[in-house]
Amino acid sequence: MGKTSLPKKSSSSASAHDSIESILAENRRFAPSKQFSSRARIGSMADYEKLYRASIKDPEKFFAKQAEELTWFKPWRKVIQPPAKKGSFEGTQWFVGGKINASYNCIDRHLETARKNKAALIWEGEPAGAFGFEQRTLTYQQLHREVSKCANVLRSLGIKTGDRVAIYMGMTPELAIAVLACARIGAPHTVIFGGFSSEAIRDRVNDCDARLIVTADGGWRRGNIVELKKNVDQALSTESSGTPVSGCPSVEKVLVVKRTAHGVDMVPGRDVWWHDAMADASADCPAVPLDSEHPLYILYTSGTTGKPKGIVHTTAGYLLGTYLTTKYIFDIRDEDIYWCSADIGWVTGHSYILYGPLSCGATVLMYEGAPMFPAPDRFWDIIERHRVSIFYTAPTAIRSFVRAGNEHPEKHDLSSLRLLGTVGEPINPEAWMWYHTLIGKGKCPIVDTWWQTETGAIMISPLPGAVPTRPGSATLPFFGVAPQVVRKDGFLCNPNEGGYLVITKPWPSMLRGIYKDPERFHKQYFSEYPGIYFTGDGARRDKNGYFWIMGRVDDVINVSGHRLGTMEVESALVGNPAVAEAAVVGRPDEIKGSALVAFVTLKQGWPPDEALREKLREHVALAIGSIARPDDIRFTDSLPKTRSGKIMRRLLRELASTGAVKGDTTTLEDFSVLEKLRTAEEE
Ligand code: WT7
Q1: Could you tell me the end-to-end alpha-carbon distance of the chain, in angstroms, rounded to an integer?
Q2: What are the contacts of 609-615 at 24+ separation with CB within 8 A?
Q3: Prediction pTM value
Q4: How many helices (H) and strands (E) does the chain have?
Q5: What kind of architecture, by CATH, is found in domain 560-682?
Q6: pLDDT digits (tens, 9 = 90+) for 486-519
Q7: How many angstroms does the Cα of residue 452 sit away from the middle of ligand 1?
Q8: Phi, psi dihedral angles at 173 (to 5 degrees)
Q9: CA-to-CA distance for 368 and 343, rounded, in angstroms?
């Protein structure tokens, strides 16, 4: 330990190269169009390589130059501050000594330009009103006013710089306003995805001791009301804590946006209506100059063990990372209408609905509801009506559009599109080709962007107009990013040899820690290969140096582009009185990427029947949220374990993906037949 494990060269030689002709043919096939390249910021592979090399050779110089494009209250002293402990980049700090504010960079600075009257947010609600679907537009000036007022409201409710604020809302402009208001006064936000349960809210709020929760009476999803306020009430209730104190003792106030107006209980002294508070608030609230390393937000994400971990991002480095990637990877322009279909409850929404595009002064489209509501063509309809030019979505969404049928996009004029993006999971070449042909009409570059909650910003992606794409490959690293594929022993893999994806140099938007858990931070990311960052993903690198991400190598399952820890689902299951033991694995699924299969042993006296199966699925949905509801529950009288008592997940995975589910639902899995396999795995 202590010594950095920079990947070593492997002993065996690289495998033979493909014929140059075949590579050139592929390059021609997926080359950026002349039309795109001629106006792209980085218009050729040579330009990309030149800048990339410079960024790796002298990152301080490179990022200092880029950071001048942000607006600073006070310049930094040092671009990269290495940690005290030698031989590791864990704990690296960026732009030390500088003062900056993310909200100011996303809003105020645009008011000094013609952008002040430009749309910052174009919002479309799920339901229709009297004049078609509900719509609202906020110019940069209007956004500035709302965010300033909201920041004053937060202050009037007792929030000071450094206090944590939880935000649990649907996708309405108030969510964006609340996030930017927190950033304005330096109160780290923790956005909790609106699909999470009251238990999930409680865990997160208590982990970071949030003093205030911003929520809404409800949200619209697939024509139904999501009971957001009720879930918050439940999280705060004394019965949820099982004691006479609140389930979330740190929470003093709840700020409630009226969205669905369907009637909710307001607790006097604790709950405040957003519109009442905003009516009285002053619109004057200068952004607070914050240290570069002031925490901007905490975002909880699933890990390999137990409860979700609070990923901490700080201000300057994160802002620079999201700003630069939005500028170069989405090639964003003032005239673009940019739409990222993610929810702000996930990191994609933080970085690529809010901080990245707004710091670039872009026009961001924000949509409240479900993709196929009220009809399967809703997304294409939105693109046509708003003239969306850049569209960023997830492979799982693309696969469900493929299944819904070509007639839906074909009904619409999608000619405004000029660039497409995907994120969240590996994209299968069929879905890529469909996206390319049916949506991009063969003329839009596709940026397949690999990154993580932890990385803050995109790490591996083609630069459109410069880097030829390959269906299924995220291609090459962004400026300053140094990824490698290594073997278990830390040696570099040969071309096309599968291994572990690591990052060998610090980058500005890297996570700064796991909230209140430095040990877990170290263990999770910097101990597998001492001193360098372990991603948890498997990958291979081809002979062109392109990266092909193969998915998680740990006990995290990627369900529809969302991360779920098997342990989290298992502990939800054993929280049910009927369950003795549970093991959760992923099984390949055509739409979701992975589906969740739970193997469950029951306590004495519980019948392994359909009713209980349904009850357990519901139990997990209540404990975590619908995204965690197991697709299959398989009852068994025991779980296959090694002699040391470890559950043999590989075996269960195999069984879940290949083993025919027994028709008779009351039959228990019989693991005795697996005796042989068991012995094999132990050896
Ligand atoms: C995990 C991170 C970062 C935005 C959304 C997910 C997988 C992400 C890709 C991609 C293949 C991808 C990885 C990664 N992933 N993008 N383009 N190709 N896999 O954020 O919830 O933190 O999940 O998503 O497995 O580790 P997240």
Answers
A1: 28
A2: 609/665, 609/666, 610/665, 612/578, 613/665, 615/576, 615/578
A3: 0.93
A4: 23, 30
A5: 2-Layer Sandwich (3.30)
A6: 999 999 999 999 999 999 999 999 999 999 999 9
A7: 5
A8: -55, -30
A9: 9
Q: What strand order describes the sheet that includes 446-449? A: 132-139, 119-129, 363-367, 337-340, 390-393, 419-423, 446-449
Return the number of other C-beta atoms located less than 10 Å from residue 415's C-beta.
12
Nearest to 623 by CA among 677, 662, 670, 567: 567
Which amino acid is present at 142? Q
| Chain-centroid distance, C-alpha 571 | 23
> Rounded mean pLDDT of 19-29?
81
H runs (alpha helix) in 58-94: 59-67
Atom of ligand 1 lying closest to residue 454 CA: 22
CA-proximal residue: ligand 1, atom 2 (nearest) = 452
Ligand 1 centroid from CA 558, angstroms: 8
Residue of the nearest CA to atom 6 in ligand 1? 424
- Return residue ranges of the chain for CATH 3.40.50.12780: 135-294
Residue nearest (by alpha carbon) to ligand 1 atom 24? 424
State the Cα torsion 103-105-110-116 to the nearest 10°.
-10
Q: What are phi and psi of 349, to 5 degrees?
A: -70, -40
Domain 135-294: which topology?
A: Rossmann fold (3.40.50)
Ligand 1 centroid distance, CA of 506 (Å):
19
pLDDT of 637 higher than 50? yes
Angle at 267 between CA 263 and CA 269, to 5 degrees: 135
Burial state string for 262-301 with b = 16 or more CB within 10 A and e = fewer than 16: eebeeeeeebbebeebbeebeeebebbebbbbbbbbbbbb
- The amino acid that residue 664 corresponds to is D
Q: Kindly state the average pLDDT of the residues 248-271.
A: 97
Residue nearest to atom 17 of ligand 1 (CA): 450
Q: Which residues line ligand 1 (CB under 6 A)?
A: 301, 347-348, 423-426, 448-453, 474, 535-537, 549, 551-552, 558, 563
In the chain, list all ranges with CATH 3.30.300.30: 560-682
pLDDT-derived band at 407, boundaries 50, 70, 90: very high
pLDDT in tens, 300-343: 998 877 789 999 999 999 999 999 999 999 999 999 999 999 99
C-alpha span between 89 and 530 (Å, rounded): 10
Q: What are the pLDDT digits (tens) for 530-588?
A: 999 999 999 999 999 999 999 999 889 999 989 999 999 999 999 999 999 999 999 99
Centroid of ligand 1 to alpha carbon of 425 (angstroms):
5
Mutate to test the pocket of ligand 1, among 346, 450, 478, 500 (most ligand atoms within 8 A of CB): 450
* Residue 226 alpha carbon to ligand 1 centre in Å: 27
Q: 419-423 and 390-393 as β-strands: parallel, antiparallel, unpaired?
A: parallel
Atom of ligand 1 lying closest to residue 562 CA = 21
Q: Are strands 579-589 and 390-393 parallel, antiparallel or unpaired?
A: unpaired
CA nearest ligand 1 atom 23, residue: 452
User: pLDDT of 37-58, one tens digit each?
Assistant: 889 999 999 999 999 999 999 9
| Calpha distance 204→676 (Å, rounded) | 43
Q: Find, among 83, 58, 65, 77, the residue nearest to 4 by Cα.
A: 83
**Residue identifier of the C-alpha nearest atom 14 of ligand 1:** 452
